[in-house]
Amino acid sequence: MDKIWPFPTPESKRIEVYYALAGGATGMGYWWSNPGYPSNGLGAQATAASRALWKEMGLLGNEIKTARQLLVTSTPVNLPMTASTNVWVRSLASGTDTIILLVVNDNYFNDFTGCHYTNVNNATVTATLPAWMQSPTAFEISAGGLNDVSTQPNGSQLQVNLGTLKLTRMIILTTDPQ
Q1: In terms of C-beta distances under 8 Å and separation of at least 24 residues, what long-range contacts does 74-83 make, across chains too?
Q2: pLDDT tens sequence across 77-136
Q3: Which residues contact 36 (CB under 8 A, 6 or more apart)?
Q4: Can you give the pTM of this predicted structure?
């Protein structure tokens, strides 16, 4: 009897990709795409779960592609930050004018029925900015494009207002007008 291996949920894959980016990954590859025994792969589009995961991988790929120039020149940095309860955040420095904040809703768990999470309302991240990063512009990169992000400066600190955090956010802080 042919069995299709269970696919990760789109939500758990999204969280996994953001953790990898925060660790310094500069891109993403997904090997499980060819149909065949025993997994039937994502390429077969065999189940609703495989189609949902395939779509999510495309959305994640769009986010990474949009941030590509920043990601390939980035490195993890230990920027002093505080975040709302259940918000996990890591920073990457890209060149001398940009910081990438990778934010994950840490209020989740996975079990055999899927990935379960609770949105974090009024989520914020406050970062202590290095001397070379004063008065940055902030925006978000998402699969849907670029969006402005509300910030509040306070001396050398910058509070980034995330609103409701569903799963992940990629926030760019930059002094580069381009």
Answers
A1: 74/24, 74/26, 74/100, 75/24, 76/22, 76/23, 76/24, 79/127, 79/128, 79/129, 79/130, 80/127, 80/128, 81/125, 81/126, 81/127, 81/128, 82/125, 82/126, 83/123, 83/124, 83/125, 83/126
A2: 999 999 999 999 999 999 989 999 999 999 999 988 889 999 999 999 999 999 888 889
A3: none
A4: 0.90
